[in-house]
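Let's practice the habit of predicting before peeking. Look at the sequence and jot down your guess about where helices and strands might fall. Then scroll down.
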Amino acid sequence: MTPSIIQCIGPQLKRFEAYFDDALRSSVPLLDRILNYIGLQKGKQMRPMFVLLCANLGGPVNDRSHRAALFVELLHCSSLVHDDVVDEAMERRNAFAVNALWKDKAAVLTGDHLFTRSVLLLLEHADHQVLRIFSAAIGKIIEGELLQMDQSRKQNWNEDVYYDIIKGKTATLLAASCAAGAASTFHDEALIQKLYLFGERLGMAFQIRDDLLDYSGVDIGKPVGNDIQEKKVTLPLIYTLHHCEPALRKTLLGIVRHHNRDKEKVAWLGAQVREHGGIAYAEAKMYSFREQALALLADFPESAARSALQELVRYTTDRSF
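Done guessing? Here is the structure:
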């Protein structure tokens, strides 16, 4: 976290952390142990940062802002627990996944608990606008996941479908985070929508960076080549498949379909993607989405919150983990 972000929302983040820690408690011993474990493995918590920074653009952060930040982090934790069950993943952020330690049934019920608690949090305080924003996002996230499953089964990989998938799976939740933060302090619906679009554009860039890191060889908390192992064809490979000779395309597809667990062949595939311009193309697209996000942000008056958001935007695309 950069100095300007700490200066802008440092005390607000400490307050959020206290709320978050309190939410990860239960009177049920097993659930309390699992929630405590989830708290120890928490990530960068970037979505709450975007909630609070977007709220700061419109005025003083208030209780609604903090509830929106807490909701999105509980929702995110819930989705990660469920994802690991669906993907049969045994690790998350270089640690055992919840399902690896407590089995699938306990993991699913814990994810359900986190989701239910997040919804009740908003209902108890009549935060209906924020709940509508996130409810719409959840629907799009589910559609994005199912679209990815369907396209993987059909092996119909093209750039437009890829963008539809990452918009639903990743960009929508970041967009909702920005809009929910804005809704807690702004009264102009047009400005709330503009921050939604800002978050969506940034979310697209964020996911492309994640997909690029899968080819980087850097330890990011999941195995390198993990996307290929799960038969997820992302933008660097999509570009390569559409811009290489037919024989190589056939070989690359064969690795994805039949040899996706062979580390040497997956590494060779990565080298071909780099050699044929897939990495460079995806990076250019990522920076294009980032510039679109920054352009939307530039419409807001200069302030400490805007400067901090600009730094956070650049962090999401320059990060190496």
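How did you do? The longest strand covers residues 91-92.
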